Task: structure prediction
Amino acid sequence: MGLNETEKTTFRLHGFYMAIEGIILGVLALNEFVFIKSLHGSNYQLSFLFQFSMLLFLFLVFINEFIKRIKNRKMMLRVTALLTRLPLLLLLFFPDNAQTIDANHYYHYIFLGIFLVYFSGNIVIYPNINFLLKTNYRHQNFGRLYSYATSTNKIVMLIVTFAYGYLLDFDNYAFRYIIPVIGLLGVISVFILSEIKYPANEKTEYKLSIFQSVKKSILEMKDILVSNIPYRHFEMGFMLYGISFMMSVTVITIYFYEQLDLNYASVAFYRNAYNILAIILLPFFGKLLGEIDPRKFAVFTYSSMALYIFFLMMTTYLPFSFETYDITIYYTLIFYILFHGVFAATMVLLWNIGSSYFCQPEEAGTYQSLHLSLTGARALVAPLFGVIFYEMFGFTFTFTLTIACLIAAIGLMVWSYRNV
Result:
């Protein structure tokens, strides 16, 4: 591939990290369903479990300023891994029967607390991944090498999720020993990641304190939203999409459990099958995003999500299915998988690099931080609202509301692209 020695070493370490993370993500893909089916958590508690993974982005601006001042990033990553991954071992002490769990609701709160700690580690680890790769890969090789590692991650995740789903059908409480294992794997993966070399920090004198720097960053973000009108419209569309997405995620999990009464293998199938299509479509959409305005590209993303929610909703009224290998396949959910595949392929691009098209290269970090901070802001209420609307008005109303938000986002993107 025409790589120098630094790139070869970095790619090998990053590849191992991504493969192990694929195992971890494959297990966590069923985490919300485990919480509601095996642990009998409430719908509102389920919304918090998803909320925790997004809410922490609110602190990204502060964390970024903190990370800049850390000289030994290798030690920081390893300490973060130990503090946030090892608590998963506590699940070894969870009971293996519904009667004990139902009689002691504190297990639900312990489970939620453990994963709040786990997700908090991501806001330290994830920003460092881009830093480590950008300092070791040459520009012409960055995208290619990153896509190879990502494909490995996705393939491993697919295999693990299906295997874990079948295991959970055999033993509904297999999470008690599987999740502690991924806790140990999480430590190992981050230790491997920390072996990637990075340039030694020069002794930089910071004229501003962390809090002053955070205030300055927030003011810069405010100025961006005021002055960059196309980007402001892009983020307004993303806000509508994000509210729709966050309201629907938890409700879809409830729908699989309460309305369709799916087993673990079936949920693993619906949570993963669309990723196969996404992997196939990624190169095409990656090229397309480089040729058209991100607002125009967003129309594909929001439309595909509206369609997959529509076909999911229609399963209530057309509940025809067949069974194969213990997986219940609804005919309407075949279209759910197809459109979800398009959504997954387009959203991963729009999410990660969409904002960079509205700014100069040196401003990309600030724009992405603003983008992620807004994600944390909508996570404050959207997941909980999804459950509230479902419990008050039912599945059809909630799914229709999420589709309406997406149609509004599509309309805004079309209007903005044509007029601004």
User: Anything to note?
Assistant: The chain has 17 helices and two strands. The first strand starts at residue 321 and ends at 324.
